[in-house]
From TrEMBL:
Name used for this protein in its record: HMA domain-containing protein
Domain HMA span(s) in chain numbering: 4-74
InterPro entries: HIPP47/16, HMA_dom, HMA_dom_sf
PROSITE patterns in the cross-refs: HMA_2
Coiled coil location: none
Superkingdom per UniProt: Eukaryota
SUPFAM superfamilies for the chain: HMA, heavy metal-associated domain
GO terms for MF: metal ion binding
Signal peptide positions on this chain: none
Amino acid sequence: MPPQMKIVVKVPMHCDKCRTKALKIAAAAHGVSKVSIEGANKDHVEVIGDDVDSVCLTRSLRKKLGCSCTIVKVEEVKPAVKTEEKPTPACTLQCRPMYCELVREYPEPTTCSIM
């Protein structure tokens, strides 16, 4: 299985319609698993996926959006290392202790009243 790649492409987008169109184009590329808009000006399209060709993705964005797109960064996504944590007890100090009290509705007779 090829490693997942993270590709960031700078796309000049001036409205929400352009952003939506860029997301749709990027999501349609082969091997893409996640697409998002990043950057301070929301002008970077971040694509994460397996075996994604960054050149073909950029060429497709240029052709379909009609603007100049540039590749900013291509890097391999490393899987997150999971650290083993000790399970926390279900009930901690925030739970109040429960108390039970035995209440008898009818007192027990000491002698039999029928006989």
